[in-house]
Design goal:
The chain is mainly beta. The protein has one domain. Helices cover 9% and strands 30% of the residues. It is built from one helix and five strands. Strands 1-2-3-4-5 form a five-stranded antiparallel β-sheet, with helices on one face. A hairpin with a 4-residue loop joins strand 4 and strand 5. The longest helix has 10 residues.
């Protein structure tokens, strides 16, 4: 089952748990709540910050992630929806297409797909 979505409102705790587990970011905990807030937009996409609440503690589980989505108001043609999640520490944890290149230069690991 594909996790890709072009609509940030479709991201719920279950979706986020599956995406973070598939990317190898969390193992035992699960996301029980999240809050989504727009944090910017650009020519070809909109960015949203997701603040995450877990049902327990796990080292290195991100407190927030950034999702990049196709623009809600089309500003440029894009052939396919693309999303990239980057943690607050700027580590790319999931991407579609080439958006993983926008992660922090110190991150040398390749982005993990959430397809």
């Amino acid at each position: 089952m594909s996790l890709l979505t072009a609509d940030p409102s479709r991201i719920d705790p279950e979706w986020m748990t599956r995406a973070l587990r598939q990317a190898g970011v969390i193992k035992e905990v699960r996301v029980v709540d999240l809050a989504c807030k727009p944090v910017g937009n650009g020519l070809v996409g909109d960015s949203y910050r997701f603040r995450l609440t877990y049902d327990g503690d796990q080292p290195n589980a991100p407190a927030t992630v950034i999702g990049k989505f196709p623009p809600q108001i089309p500003r440029a043609a894009s052939p396919v929806p693309r999303i990239c999640f980057t943690s607050a520490k700027s580590r790319s944890i999931a991407s579609s297409g080439d958006h993983g290149r926008h992660s922090h230069p110190a991150d040398r690991s390749p982005p993990k797909s959430i397809r």
